[in-house]
Each structure stands twice: as structure tokens, then as C-alpha cells.
Amino acid sequence: MASKCNLTVNGRTVRANIGETLVDAAMGAWIAVPHDCCSGQCETCRVRVVSGLVDARGTGEGDTVLACQAMLLGDAVIAYDEVPEATRRAGHVAAMRALSRDVVEVIVELRTPLEYLPGQYVSVTFAGFPARDYSPTLRWDGTRAAHELIFHIRMLPDGIVSSELGRDIRPGHRVEVRGPFGHAFFRRGDGVMVLVAGGTGWAPIWAVAHEAVRARPRRDIIVIVGARDLDGLYMRDSLDWLRDHGAREVIATSRQGGGGLVRTGRPTNYLPLLGPSDMVYVAGAPGLVDSVKQKALAAGAFCFADPFLPSEQRMSFMDRMARLLRAPGRGSVRDVGLFAPQMAGEDGAGRSAAARSVNRPAARRPLQETLFAARRLMRRE
Ligand SMILES: Cc1cc2nc3c(=O)[nH]c(=O)nc-3n(C[C@H](O)[C@H](O)[C@H](O)COP(=O)(O)OP(=O)(O)OC[C@H]3O[C@@H](n4cnc5c(N)ncnc54)[C@H](O)[C@@H]3O)c2cc1C
Ligand code: FES
């Protein structure tokens, strides 16, 4: 039985081993199929199988498979959209602003711009914390400077990273960004575009919606966004922007307390009847993303899904040490002004005392106390 075969990747044919994953086979000939997790979670590596013998190993959707999982069984031809190459960038937190009770806009300024497609995500490491994935977005009116990355981050009370926004993570904090990744990026087309977001899933969906309107103002766009309550609908100004710029339908839903322009229920209650020429994008909590994806696939529609899966990466020993040495003087989030109406970190004489306190150098823990804490941590490792 033959052990070798031909794999054609976006028109380039290479020799490969039968039984290799598509990512490994392409990599053997120095072709980097976009990938990130290599464990079938992130969807970055989804490719189209144009023809040939491929074992999808449970990842098949229409004519697509996950290239990090699917295995070559013989000659095959695969194709994918070219995306900017993943790279690393350094920067710092330039500003933070509360958008709702538990969602914060974090603006990161990079030393050099990072190219990405609307809808892609990046891996962000706030110095001293484990990396987390976030989806770059735009300001409410669709603006963004080239050196900026704008994130909407939901603060989880027990979140290793998000609970530290405005506390240990403040304007000036060093940041490293890796990416871009992801498969749910904006694509041109003629069909109806249905964009569905739950909570901070709005971040990539707003980036895609804005680009769709910019690229083709007369395209049929339906936007459905949901939150647990009215306060969670922090994106209302952008929804108005979309209404003013010709979106066919813009629906906001709240599980508690609808009324006026806000409907009661979940985004899935208001999905239009989908057809095979529709293009569906969905982002946010995995449950919502999965149910919209199932409906889209059942209708034969194209579906680009971005589930915000929890990260496996915990706090490393070095991260904990770095935190101990850096800034243990922690106030509450409200103390540091994150929830003041002004933009924390903005320059200008009009800043509130709370906003100014964000930029105060953090108090240092005496060395002896730090060493005691480090010894306690080592015993726990
Ligand atoms: C592709 C991708 C893009 C993402 N984009 C964004 C984004 O733009 N904005 C954003 O806020 N988040 C986004 N996330 C989620 C983000 O990466 C983190 O998982 C999240 O911010 C929690 O990190 P943490 O360190 O604060 O909490 P952790 O310490 O990781 O988790 C604390 C607790 O909360 C649970 N948990 C983790 N994530 C969630 C969640 N989303 N909802 C409910 N419970 C959760 C965990 O299981 C754990 O019990 C994205 C995730 C992925 C995979
Ligand atoms: S790299 Fe294949 S799913 Fe993440």
C-alpha cells in the first residue's frame, strides 16, 4: 500500500505522508495553513476540501474540515482564504472605560500595527497574567487608529484576568499580543448576512458588520444582539449607527425586561428563516453559538462561528511571582475610576480624581513580605 500522496494547498502541490494531518502535511513543505490551538477547538484551521481523500475525523461541516484534525487518506486538494500571518506585537494598555456594569472597553496601543481581518481574534498577555483570547473591535462609531486594538472584555468575578481590569491591570500595563487567528472573519458575498451576538460576542460581530456596510452598503444585513438584561446591551449607539447606515433589520434582545426597541427573549427566538445562500456569523457564549450554528447548518447556510470558550491557561508560578513583586496595593474597581464616566488614562486637565488615580504608580510590597509570600507559593506548587 502507498505511504505517500500529493496534497495541493491553494494551488501548490506537495508530497505528503498518508495518515498525516493536513496542517502537518502542509508544514512539511513549509506551507503554514493558519492554525492556533491544534486541538480542534478554535476553528482557525478550517479549510475546504475541493477534492480527494480526507478523513475529517468528526470535524466535517459541508465541504470543510479542521486541518489540524483531518487526516490524509490519499491525494487531496484543499483551499482556504489567505489571512494575515500570525505574529507578535508589544504594547501597553492606553485606556479603559466601563461600557456597562460588567463590560469594559480596553484600548491597547501597539508599538507597530497588527494586521487582522474583521472578526478575527488575538491572544493577549497582560504582563504577569496568563494569555487570553479577545476579539479586536471598533469604537461605537466604527473608528480605530492603526496602532490601536480595542477590546470589549466581560469582567467575571472569579476571572483570573478579567477581574483584575482596573485593579492590577491599569493604563500603562505592558501587553503582548499574538495573532491574528480565527476563521470567522468578514467575507464578501451577495447573500443575506445574518449577524448574531451574545454579550461581548458583539466585539467581533460589530467589526464584521461595520466592514460589511463599508464594503457593500446595499447588502442585506440582519443584526441580532442579545444580553441578559438591559444594562448588558451596551452597544446601542452602534446599533443606531447600523440602522442609520441601511442595515435591513437590527434587533436587540434581553432575557429580562424588554420593551421599546428591545425584545424579550434570546437572539435565537428572532432568527429569520435561513436559506442556503445566507451567510451567518455568530459570536459569544458557546451555548448560543452552537444553537445558531446548528440552525444555520440545517438550512445549508454558510456559518462562521466564534464561541468564547473558557481558556485552559491558568496562572503560572512565574506570573504569580511577577504579580507579587509588582503591585499588590489593590483597591476596588470603582476606587480606580474604571466605572467613572470619564475615559481612564486620558490626558487633560479635566480628569477626575478617580481617573487620575488609575495612573498612580503602584505601591511596592516590602521585599521581606514578598519573599515570605513566594515561599508560601512554592510550597503550594
Ligand atoms: C476565540 C475567542 C475570542 C474571545 N473573545 C472575547 C472577547 O472579545 N471578549 C471577552 O470578554 N471574552 C472573550 N473571550 C473569552 C476570554 O478569552 C476569556 O476566556 C474570558 O475573558 C475569561 O477569562 P478570565 O481569565 O477572566 O477568567 P478565567 O479565570 O479563565 O475563568 C473564570 C471562571 O469563569 C468561567 N468562564 C470563563 N470564560 C467564561 C465566559 N466567557 N462566560 C462565562 N464564564 C466563563 C471559567 O470556566 C471559570 O469558572 C474569547 C474567547 C475565545 C476562545
Ligand atoms: S488549530 Fe485546528 S481547531 Fe484550532
TrEMBL record:
The entry's keywords: Dioxygenase, Oxidoreductase
Q: Which residues form the FAD-binding FR-type domain?
A: 86-187
Q: Name one GO molecular function term.
A: iron-sulfur cluster binding
What are the top taxonomic ranks of the organism? Bacteria, Pseudomonadati, Pseudomonadota, Alphaproteobacteria, Hyphomicrobiales
This entry's Enzyme Commission designation comes to: 1.18.1.3
* Annotated PANTHER family: NADH OXIDOREDUCTASE HCR (PTHR47354), PROTEIN RFBI (PTHR47354:SF5)
Q: What is this protein called?
A: 3-phenylpropionate/trans-cinnamate dioxygenase ferredoxin reductase subunit
Domain of life from the UniProt record: Bacteria
- Tell me the ranges covered by the 2Fe-2S ferredoxin-type domain, including all copies: 3-84
